């Protein structure tokens, strides 16, 4: 029996269980109500339906999930026990290659065999897969019936089906949320592990404080010293994400927030705010195009015109400017929120003293909103330094340690992409360096986020 | 009856309103109020909630300009000068007619900076020494100096509610206003803090024309010499406080005073 058909069948059984349990509960409850006792009936019939349906489906599905994981092992064992397997070579590598080929043919993923030995194993494979497939299906159906029958016998008017169902719903939700956490922990663990391997090849101090980055030379066998100094990458990241982008995003974001909260007519605000926020929805790859194809060449021509040396067609400035534009809505909406959170009474107080609107904004609103704005800016920085597409397309790959914004620089994210693309064994220092870079990025972003959220929260409390 | 009787029409009023109407959009909140306010007396505005006391008070320093839907008709003068005429500078007007709000609203700055805010924006004091003098004088007048003189650079929002309200009064005083408008200045305070503010109002009387909105009839009786009773956007009765409370001429005033509604 094929997978989809089996699932359909189980679903059908579940539906039948739901309908019949509900009907039975309804009938029993009518009888029980007639006795007149208030506690004679506990749960609505629907809950009984769900209770029985879940008992029908859940054990069978769980069983199938486990079964699917142990079957391949069982099948291989069965095939190896077959007389045809006696002629297999003892070498592990060939053995598993032949077995793999036979399996592919048996499941129809491959048409014919290159290896005659594999051809001989196809039939045993087919038989074994079939056998265990049918066995699994039968067991699942038996389980469904057994579970359903057990639950069905418990359908009594005073049975607390609602409590059970609610508990199960809660457990499901809990598992869903744990899954996200577990995934994060897993990611961090793998980052840590791979980074650890990297640092066993390269001294962490050389990595964190070295100023020469040329992983390519390490890959070509020139040794790991002096090849993995990540300072130029850190500098490029800060230069683009925390300096150039912020020089663009902070003033523009702040000013647009001030305009929108303090000066704009409601109609203007109604249109401008969503439009601005739409900027945040533009895919970063589109910004990347814009930076690489429009801004970068224009900047280079400009730099050449005014006689700046070292101007490149990929530049920190191009990437930073476009990233700044991308971050504007982010800063402006955070600033907007913080300014709007300053109580109206504060504004009134200032205006009633005879302050003008702009004096009120400068001297009362902005200072009062500042912590919130700072928090917003920190979040924006953490976003900017983790941003990948724009810098990959517009910033370049040259690990320059330079202050010249027209020169090409590279960033942590760009290098991660660079290190992991192309043919590489997964245990060379070059590949593992990507994980170390990822770890640094992760830690910095995490710290920025924690600080930012703290600041924002503290400030919110001040007005509550 | 909508036309207010004005037995107190004074020869030389500090502020005077003639047939003032205020609209929020199409809705009329004040229906033609005429009243004179003078320098020597504290004037109390009383009346049930929603009758337009705050609205009318805010027309006196044009704070209604900050409400987009508000529109004011009629004439209001300060020392005979029309405050709604185009030649009147709102900034100047608000420096001359200060305001204290229902909830204390000190700026999230130091006590010193709260008081210095007004003098700075109006250019009244430039040198640090001048500013120090203004700050001390204003805090003394607001009856707060002794309590805060050792912590002038602590945040104004760290003070108690009553202290904050006196700080706000001090902040208003610091720009040397001629009129001080107070909108229920004690409604967020406990009785002791309230008593302090009332005492302060007594001390300020004569130096500034004071108008106070209050829901507390005893308070009106204690601090004011003139009382105006508002009802549904009308000025129903205006007179000497003791007369209003003991001998109101209008039926509605009598009902309100005796607690029959409001
Ligand atoms: N910004 C506004 N927009 C629209 N209507 C308003 C606005 N402010 C006040 N009003 C309306 O104007 C009328 C008078 O309000 P106002 O605040 O002046 O009353 P009040 O006498 O001060 O009441 P309270 O004693 O409760 O403070 C009320 O009906 C109120 O709903
Ligand atoms: Mg009011």
TrEMBL record, chain B:
<keyword id="KW-0813">Transport</keyword>
<feature type="domain" description="ABC transporter">
    <location>
        <begin position="15"/>
        <end position="257"/>
    </location>
</feature>
<dbReference type="GO" id="GO:0016020">
    <property type="term" value="C:membrane"/>
</dbReference>
<protein>
    <submittedName>
        <fullName>Phosphate ABC transporter ATP-binding protein</fullName>
    </submittedName>
</protein>
<dbReference type="InterPro" id="IPR017871">
    <property type="entry name" value="ABC_transporter-like_CS"/>
</dbReference>
<dbReference type="GO" id="GO:0016887">
    <property type="term" value="F:ATP hydrolysis activity"/>
</dbReference>
<keyword id="KW-0067">ATP-binding</keyword>
<dbReference type="InterPro" id="IPR003439">
    <property type="entry name" value="ABC_transporter-like_ATP-bd"/>
</dbReference>
<dbReference type="InterPro" id="IPR005670">
    <property type="entry name" value="PstB-like"/>
</dbReference>
<keyword id="KW-0547">Nucleotide-binding</keyword>
<dbReference type="GO" id="GO:0005524">
    <property type="term" value="F:ATP binding"/>
</dbReference>
<dbReference type="InterPro" id="IPR027417">
    <property type="entry name" value="P-loop_NTPase"/>
</dbReference>
<dbReference type="GO" id="GO:0005315">
    <property type="term" value="F:phosphate transmembrane transporter activity"/>
</dbReference>
<keyword id="KW-0592">Phosphate transport</keyword>
<dbReference type="GO" id="GO:0035435">
    <property type="term" value="P:phosphate ion transmembrane transport"/>
</dbReference>
<dbReference type="Pfam" id="PF00005">
    <property type="entry name" value="ABC_tran"/>
</dbReference>
<dbReference type="InterPro" id="IPR003593">
    <property type="entry name" value="AAA+_ATPase"/>
</dbReference>
